[in-house]
Specification:
Layout: H1 17-40, H2 43-46, H3 51-81, H4 88-111
Helix pairs in contact: 1-3, 3-4
Length: 112
């Protein structure tokens, strides 16, 4: 008995590579939400300035989430064409988020 992916997915990959990639990005988004809750603990110590990393994390998460559905469609289409584009926009947003959150954390701990 062969395992076939439903045609509604738009590809025949039995390993479901686009789904694995989508799940990896969803785990990354969950990590950003956990980071937000950690920064909530900073509010009593640093005041309202601690809202900056929370807002920044949420905005980055929203931007990545918006791109996920389009990314999935590109991956499924790319499997058919045997050419999957790199998720450059998502990686740049995530990398920038990590850099800004790190800088905000260092400033808060160093100057707070």
């Amino acid at each position: 008995m062969s395992h076939r992916v439903p045609r509604a997915l738009g590809h025949d990959d039995p390993g479901l590579q686009p789904e694995r990639t989508l799940l990896a990005w969803r785990r990354t988004l969950m990590t950003l939400l956990v980071v937000c809750t950690i920064f909530l603990r900073w509010i009593p110590h640093f005041g309202l300035i601690a809202l900056l990393p929370i807002i920044f994390s949420l905005m980055a998460g929203i931007l990545i989430q918006i791109g996920l559905n389009a990314r999935y469609r590109k991956s499924a289409k790319g499997l058919k064409q045997e050419r999957i584009p790199a998720p450059l926009r998502e990686v740049v947003v995530l990398g920038g988020t990590v850099i800004v959150l790190s800088a905000l954390g260092i400033c808060a701990v160093g100057f707070g």
